[in-house]
Please model this.
Amino acid sequence: MTALRDLRVKLFADGADLAAMRDLAQLPYIAGFTTNPSLMRTAGVKDYAAFGRAVLDVVGQSPVSFEVFADDFTVMEQQAREIAGWGPGVYVKIPVSDTHGTPSSGLLRRLAAARVKVNVTAVFTLDQVRAASEALAGGPPAIISVFAGRIADTGRDPVPHMASAVDLLRTQPQQQLLWASPREVLNVIQADTIGCHIITLTPDLIRKLALLGKPLEHYSRETVGTFHRDASEAGLRLDS
Model:
């Protein structure tokens, strides 16, 4: 069983809770951070720029991805250039298309030419991976985020899909594939096995990393103990 120290895939923390990000930044195995508008809404973020500055104070030089929120490519580009100026470790998350399904390839090309580091988000298909990679070719470091967990939610095995995506990026060493929306610790092992560069983890999954390689006999006994303790504390009885 692979130990945490043996992983080649980089672990990025996903969230928008500033206190949690501060704690996670102290963990030596957290290599970067990602967030998105949905997470920021849940966290109650109102002032995006102030939040961004606070995050950068917390994560230091670690890479961190902030997403644009417009649905117009011209405005997206304006937002991307502003966000990129927040710091050298910033990657700007650009959706793979607008809400009408129009690909963002043209915008990706312009940002790559302007040396803006991009994280292409909400990617699902291999055609989207290919198009994004081609648009970013020759540009600065970039990330392509494939939502493997949501692919799995549709009943499809994401592992062959992600392995094919890894192969598509082999000729672009400045581009990294990110396994997004994982559902369990097993996904970390799967991502590592196929050579995926990055996987994002929410704080609850990061806590579960402590279980990596745990002896199953011990885990079984702990589980039995948990059920017994909970039954006792609940005062369960069978009255005849």
Observations:
- The chain has a mean pLDDT of 96.
- The longest helix spans residues 216-234.
- The beta strands are 10-14, 30-34, 64-67, 90-95, 118-123, 142-146, 175-179, 198-201.
